[in-house]
């Protein structure tokens, strides 16, 4: 049985899903949110694996001004229910990968971004999906290290059956 594709969602992806759900999103990201929801469905159906750092749980608390009880419920369902993503616990190996982006590879990025990147690399994800400008800016350097960084609409790991407009998978599309 072939290995399931692995994708890493940086915290900005979860924030965009929440914004879309409550109607405060950037309309130009509608296609990205659609893809993110399909990725989550594919993970729930065990066709792919989705990872994010424990850091995402903390970073989503800054989703102002939309942080109401409904949004908190979305974050809890997505990040801590165990249905959609696997949380990556920071370890010394991940911290060293994050540090070595600068020390070894001369890739400069913010500490939280480096931890996301280190987590994705440690979990051997094919892609890291993000809207974060700092991460997207260093995408070419990260690709040289074997990590493809993309905005969600450009993902290559979403199985073809999930790219269809209407899905008949016996599960609800609402997340």
Give your account of this protein's structure.
The chain starts with 5 loop residues before the first strand and ends in a 25-residue tail after the last strand. It is of the alpha/beta class. Helix content is 46%, strand content 10%. The chain has 8 helices and 5 strands; from the N terminus they run E-H-H-E-H-H-E-H-H-E-H-H-E. Strands 3-2-1-4-5 form a 5-stranded parallel sheet. Helix 1 crosses helix 4 (69-80) and helix 5 crosses helix 6 (111-122).
Give the topology, please.
Blueprint: E1 6-9, H1 11-22, H2 30-44, E2 49-53, H3 54-59, H4 69-80, E3 86-88, H5 92-103, H6 111-122, E4 127-129, H7 133-137, H8 139-144, E5 148-150
Parallel strand pairs: 1-2, 1-4, 2-3, 4-5
Helix/strand/pairing class, anyone? Answer: alpha/beta
Give a short account of the largest sheet.
5 strands, parallel
Overall spatial form? globular
Topology order in helix (H) and strand (E) letters: EHHEHHEHHEHHE
Flag low-confidence runs.
167-173
Radius of gyration from the CA trace?
A: 16 Å
Q: What kind of assembly state do the chains in view correspond to?
A: single chain
Mean pLDDT: 91
Number of strands: 5
Q: What topology, given as strand order, has the largest sheet? A: 3-2-1-4-5
Number of helices: 8
Distance between the termini: 28 Å
Strand content: 5-15%
Measured as a percent range, the helix fraction is 40-55%
What features would you highlight for this structure?
single chain; globular; alpha/beta; 8 helices; 5-stranded parallel beta sheet; 175 residues
